Amino acid sequence: MKRLFFILALSVWPFISLAAQELPKLNGIPANVTIQSRTQSDHLAFKGIPIDGDIDAFSKQLVNAGYTESLRFTEKYIKWFEGLFMDEKCFVGVMYSPNGLVGRVTVEFAYSSSYARNSAYNDAISLYRTKYGSPGYSDVDVCIWDVPHGGIAILKDPSSGNKLLITYEDSKNGEIVIEERNAAIKREKASKINDI
Description:
An 8-stranded antiparallel sheet has the order 5-6-7-8-12-11-10-9. It has one domain (about 35-190). By secondary structure, it is an alpha+beta fold. The longest helix has 23 residues, at about 175-195. It is built from 4 helices and 12 strands; from the N terminus they run H-E-E-E-E-H-E-E-E-E-H-E-E-E-E-H.
């Protein structure tokens, strides 16, 4: 777990664009960093929706849960939604593979001040401790839970303003999605370079 935090600490903060020609990230968490689980059966759920299956089916379930598709961000293999999570307005990014397999969901909250973000962070930590117990790793900027069927990370994102991020990664699909997504983006980049 400490190794995972070290990887997160070194690479989690900057939110990149595809124009920068770097590997994509979902709200600051690099697409090549996975949050592993002890359990490798079934799937982690977000809002009661298993993080599994096709992006279109997952999207329909999110819409049925009250989210609307958002065009705020345009990132390859990430579909964005707007709605409420923990009774607060947020954006929800769903990472999927080129084949449409869903593997990671990140909730992004934006606050007007670091005080408001820190207060929300502490409130979220308290709620998640109540539901999941003590995190496997915790410090002033990030808490990571190793839960059945995946992992959950709550972190402050100082590089992109006063944002709070909560990421759910399925233990079965998360790594597959990240590997396939990164490979597809590398192939597309190589193809563009060959066109020059």
